Amino acid sequence: MQDIRNIAVIAHVDHGKTTLVDELLKQSGTIEAHKELAERAMDSNELERERGITILSKNTAIKYKDVKINIIDTPGHADFGGEVERVLKMVDGVLLLVDAQEGVMPQTKFVVKKAISLGLKPILVVNKIDKPAAEPERVVDEVFDLLVAMGADEEQLDFPILYAAARDGYAKYNLEDENKDLTPLFEAIIKYVPKPTGNKDNPTQIQVFTLDYDNYVGRIGIARIFNGKVKRGENLLLVKADGEEIRGRISKLIGFLGLNRMEIDEAEAGDIVAIAGFEAIDVGDSLVDPNNPAPLDPLHIEEPTLSVYFSVNDSPLAGLEGKHVTSNKLKDRLKKEVETNIAMRVEEVGEGKFKVSGRGELQITILAENMRREGYEFSLSRPEVIIKEENGVKLEPFELLVIDVPDDFSGAVIEKLGRRKAVMSSMNPMGEGYTRIEFEIPARGLIGFRSEFLTDTKGEGVMNHSFLDFRPFVGEVEHRKNGALISMENGKALAYSLFNLQERGVLFIEPGTEVYVGMIIGEHSRPNDLEVNPIKGKNLTNVRAAGSDEAIKLVPPRKMTLERALEWIEEDELVEVTPKSIRIRKRYLDPHIRKRMAKQKKA
Questions:
Q1: pLDDT tens digits along 474-493
Q2: pLDDT the model gives residue 41
Q3: Cα(145)–Cα(153) distance, rounded to whole angstroms?
Q4: Which residue of 29, 115, 126, 597 has the smallest Cβ count within 10 Å?
């Protein structure tokens, strides 16, 4: 029987999980020295590379001496918490990475809480000890306090500690030791992570924790074998979460080593494999021996907290830039997303309109950005939180918000958050002129806050949040204060008219941009909406006067990214997304209909 260890790497976003996995791959000899390993090789998706974050949990396997170590690299963002939770059920130990300067962050708390509740023992890796402001000793104390607060038992509190700089490829037990390589970490994994329980002679029990899709073989379930042996071509019984049973045959059995997947003939208890051949396979489903079925408990998946409406683009510029513009194309693509992303839900709510619910703004904007790159064109509504009702009480999602701000700006930030119904729970000086403040805030209060926060802290503030729970509804939350500058004409914007408009507010467009009636071209400096003409040219006369041809100086426009636009819009506005442009518009383009609808809403 193979000697196997199964571990997950968990940490707050940007504390170095993927970099550490890269080094483990290199130093274990799994990837030959002559093969060039791309930086952050595990982040294979284009968006993951651009943003430097992990979005999907991925697994790899390395061989060290005679031990096979299955490693799962997990996302650090709360929006992808559903991924982390499932993965932890599949492993026997966790590598908890904490940044030696930042210390324990909201996501650290989130992932540690999950790991402790499942009875996993952490190996603490204090990463980035080469940072000038690193305080590894303080971080170890913080982690210990966190584990005590989370109700860890004696054994979990007796965790091994290593100090590392994953980027430079070394780990050590004591800060005084010399910087060599990751051998201490490999040894710690083999010593402290328990061997998988389960026996290859028992009846087969397999559980799926992630899905993949292949155009050739269809849906693939990535799963852990808890008991028994599995062979290619074998007949198994698929047991769904609702108890439905489907018989099927394994058409492909795939094993992992390094970044490669290779077809294998058989695997046994404790290993992690990919299985094809079951079209109805889903996350949390069990594959069991048909003669002796003993399905495992289905996985609990966290419910969505935010929803956004995707609809067919119906603006005057629709269909000019995108390849896929019809409601059928949009529906197929969203259905395909739900096949592999189980933390999302999609429902059709009308002709060409779909309600997409997920765990947060980031998760939904990542989907929209991916679709945009694939040539889709659509419009998005303002994100809304999902409100539940229990025993006649309205409940809404609350988040734990942790911000690090320069001391000079903390007052302004606390005041703004107060208006958004946030309650401060702690405030600690971080040294170097920074303060860390924690709040509990309704998720509604966070919509549109990030861009204001960056402006208020001159770009130096850092904010992170993670889902807490559903609590009673707390009434209205403050929205955007400023109105919009709305185009009243169709055509190309001219520098001359933009020059005259820029004193009315902040512009989002530059000269030469195509505009249409009802499109928003900027933010008004006052609370009301203002209709303006961005295509008016200069009246030409044959009289020359001094000063009539002064150079036009334009302030650079505010570039609206997808996230910024979604945060900025109000209920009566939409973001028009195409492969080339992101435009903001009023839901009703005709000014008369707009006024009538506003009156009806007030009434």
A1: 878 877 788 999 999 999 99
A2: 43
A3: 13
A4: 29
Closest CA to 7 of 67, 94, 83, 84: 94
Phi and psi, residue 153, nearest 5° = -85, 175
Region label for 210, one of left (φ > 0), alpha (ψ between -120 and 50) or beta (otherwise):
beta
Give the residue among 515, 32, 587 at the shortest CA–CA distance from 309: 587
376-402: b (≥16 Cβ within 10 Å) or e: bbbbbbbbbbbeeeeeeeebbbbbbbb
**What sign has the CA pseudo-torsion 328, 329, 330, 333?**
positive
Mean per-residue pLDDT for 253-272? 80
Strand 434-442 relative to strand 423-431, pairing: antiparallel
Max distance between CA atoms of the chain, in angstroms, equals 99
Q: What is the mean pLDDT of residues 190-202?
A: 83
Average pLDDT of the chain, as a whole number:
81
Confidence of residue 302 (pLDDT cuts 50, 70, 90): low
Residue 343, token pair as written in the block:
């933390």
Contact, 465 vs 400, CB < 8 A? yes
Exposed e or buried b for every residue in 316-354, given b needs 16+ CB within 10 A? ebbeeebebbebebbbebbeebeeebbbbbbeeeeebbb
Is it the case that residue 45 has pLDDT exceeding 60?
no
**Cβ(361)–Cβ(563) below 8 Å:** yes
Residue 383 three-state SS: coil
Alpha-carbon gap, residue 462 to 40, rounded angstroms: 23
State how far the alpha carbon of 601 is from the alpha carbons of 219, 387, 569, 573, in Å: 46, 21, 18, 14
Token couple for 415: 């005041």
What is the Cα–Cα distance from 81 to 375, expressed in whole angstroms? 28
Going by the DSSP 8-state scheme, the letter that residue 324 receives in this structure is B
- Report the helix count and the strand count for the chain, using DSSP H and E: 15, 35
Question: Reading across the β-sheet that carries 272-276, which strands appear in turn?
Answer: 245-249, 235-239, 286-288, 205-214, 218-227, 272-276, 252-257, 260-263
Mean pLDDT of 301-312: 83
Contact (Cβ atoms closer than 8 angstroms) between residue 164 and residue 133: no
The C-alpha atoms of residue 1 and residue 321 are separated, in whole angstroms, by 57
Indicate if the alpha-carbon torsion angle 259, 263, 265, 268 is positive or negative: positive
- Measured distance CA(487)–CA(147) in Å, rounded: 56
Q: Print burial letters for 211-225: b (CB count within 10 Å at least 16), e (below 16).
A: bbeeeeeebbbbbbb
Which position has the higher pLDDT, 212 or 97? 97
| 531 bridge partner residues | 486
pLDDT tens-place string over residues 218-252: 778 888 888 888 888 888 888 887 778 888 888 88
Give the CA dihedral 494, 497, 499, 500, nearest 10 degrees: 180
How would you classify residue 320: left for phi > 0, otherwise alpha for psi between -120 and 50, otherwise beta?
alpha
CA nearest 563: which of 14, 53, 157?
53
Q: How far apart are CA 101 and CA 129, in angstroms?
A: 8
pLDDT at 309: 92
Distance CA 440, CA 424 (A): 7
Q: Backbone phi, then psi, for 481, in 5-degree steps? A: -85, -30
Residue in 418, 459, 462, 417 with CA at minimum distance from that of residue 436: 462
